[in-house]
Amino acid sequence: MVDPSQAGMVALGAGIAVGLAGIGAGMGEQAIGAAAVGAMAEDEKFFGKGLLMTVIPESIAIFGLVVSLILLFVF
Amino acid sequence: MGASNNVKYAYIVARVRAMKSKLIPRDMYPKILNMEIPEITRFIEESEYKKDVDELAKKYKGTELIEHAMSQNLALTYRKLIEVSQNEANFLITEYLRFWDIWNIKTMLRGKFSGASEEDIVEHLVAAGQLSYRDLMELVKIGTVEGVIGALSRTPYYPALEGYKGDLAEIENALDKWYYAKRIEAAIQTGNKLFLKFLRTEIDLKNLKMLFRMKRAGMEREDIMKLIIPGGMELKEADLNRLASLPLNEFVRALEEFSYWNAIADVSSDLSSLINIEIRLDKYGLEYAARISYYYPLSILPILDYILSKKIEVDNLRIIVHGKETKLPEEIIKAHLVM
């Protein structure tokens, strides 16, 4: 267990993990999202593929979330 | 290329790629060639041109309808590219599409010069540039070449036109030179090296076609050099000077040192008609545009590739329709297609 005096640092680490992962995912998604909307504007059939491609960088955000959960509940 | 540049082009490139997927595939042309005019008309009516055909069906009939529908579709497609693009892409597309203003001005001046009717001139206009359909319709109503030039005095094209002294070829050449000089300026202004590269290759191909025509017509070096457009990629001024001074056979052999040779090598021996060579050079341009647009997928190049592919699709369909209408043999029509 973490020393109670260090608990704040753990919470801070968990926050940074989620925050940075979120920013990274967002940066990855901006071009993919723009391209998906462009393709969809021409052909609605691209909706499924576009959505799938757009959420792929979202896995990075999930990694951040997992790391923060480990920090908060395992240590 | 920076990340922000990638994002800038992601939307428009994805849209253009989706539009390109709707173009008539290359292997479809032999099938269209086997069709008769009513079947071709039906095929075009059921394709991407449907809306334009329906819209113009009240005004025109038969091949005239197809001709107008294709011109309208081309103009609307290009206008759409300008409307859906932003910032640098929008600026470069707008500048590139001024080609159609030059095209329309040339068509109009040629029409007025030869005394063609208003309908005949309108049939060949494509309102895809900065001069709107309404502007063009007003220009068509003017009776003389001088009148048309006067009406264009407030446009950026006027400097190329004002020197008109009865020689149409001279101002047509001035318009071409103006167009490419301005495009190069736009490329330098935005710092877009890929646009510049594409443009300079286009200039090379245009100069090569010009050299072939002029050499075949037996023109002198001084006269040829007046028509050459400066700023090419491989064919620098010194090369062009040298090529222009050689006799036709040696000129063709001298082209071996340039990369364009591969495109024309097997047809270079037959100079009885330049159609084969010009079609090969057009094809080279099309393949080059497709190839470099895959090297730089998030740039202006896929858009330019689409602009070129769309123009060639319309040209090919026009050639087929006119060829079939005049009952030309299939082989001759096929020889004129870029595919």
From TrEMBL, chain A:
Pfam families: ATP-synt_C. One of its GO terms (molecular function) is proton transmembrane transporter activity. GO terms for biological process: proton motive force-driven ATP synthesis. It is a multi-pass membrane protein. The chain crosses the membrane at residues 51-74. Residues 12-71 form the V-ATPase proteolipid subunit C-like domain. GO terms for cellular component: proton-transporting ATP synthase complex; proton-transporting two-sector ATPase complex, proton-transporting domain. InterPro entries: ATP_synth_F0_csu, ATPase_proteolipid_c-like_dom, F/V-ATP_Csub_sf. It is found in: Membrane. Keywords: Membrane, Transmembrane, Transmembrane helix. Belongs to the ATPase C chain family. This is H+transporting two-sector ATPase C subunit. It comes from Candidatus Methanoperedens nitratireducens.
